[in-house]
Specification:
- By secondary structure, this protein is α/β, with parallel strands linked by helices.
- It has helices spanning 72-75, 83-100, 122-125, 127-136, 155-168, 184-190, 199-202, 209-225, 237-245, 270-273; strands at residues 4-8, 14-18, 41-50, 55-65, 109-113, 143-148, 171-177, 194-197, 228-231, 250-251, 260-261.
- The strands form two sheets. Strands 3-4-5-6-7-8-9-10 form an eight-stranded mixed β-barrel.
- Strand 6, helix 5 (155-168) and strand 7 (171-177) form a beta-alpha-beta unit.
- The longest helix has 18 residues, at 83-100.
- The chain starts with a strand and ends with a helix.
Length: 275
Amino acid sequence: MSYCLRLRGLTGRFFRVNWKAAGMSIGCVGCKDGSGFEQPFSMAFQPIVNLKTGKVFAQEALVRGKGGEGAGTVLSAVTEVNRYAFDQACRVRAIELAHGLNILDGEELLSINIMPNAIYEPRACIRQTLIAAERTGLPPDRIIFEFTESEKLKVDHLRGILRAYREIGFKTAIDDFGAGFSGLLLLAEMQPDIVKLDMGLIRGIDSDPVKQTMLQHISTMLNDLGVMTVCEGVETLEELEVIRRFGISLIQGYLVARPSFETMQQPVIQAAMAA
């Protein structure tokens, strides 16, 4: 049995990940290769846009029903028993669907939401993701794993997950920052590559001086930490004007593109850049 994966980075250079050398066991308790979640589902994609370059920075994969129904129709079937299988199946489905939509033809990254509490042992539980990445030719450094702070997490467990993922080459992001349990403490402990600010901070920010002050100082702090800032839920040109005033260039929201079921649509960037 081979214990190696041959993967390619952004430079085009191939490298290998050895299961045993990297400490990746072939399985762990609960590892069922993505089986065990019977609810059919698919993905929609919503771009994160870089206003400085005028290009798509990343495509976020969002769970949808098999016919494009809302995420709730799928998430309602997730239980403590099958959440590991669901988490694994989501990763593989996102990678395979993105590959089929030719994401590798551009430079954008693929962002996948994960459930840290569904990960038993990070190096064992990443096996199916790496196999899917190798099969489709998607290098680890083109994949972002998002986790939300709205889920109560064991800090030591999450730290171990992120450490293992960084060593493999994945990027990590805190999603919905500011809306969850841990806030700044989680940021200090995890030191992710990206922080996605919750849309509640962005909504109506053009008419809210308190939110403006908060965004200004949060963006400055993240910049000092070397963490990229993404503003979620941007819907109006007025909100965008405030965001740009503070030097933030990565945005996501209906202003540039809505989630698109099983497709990757081109966002409306020109109007946003001209704001």
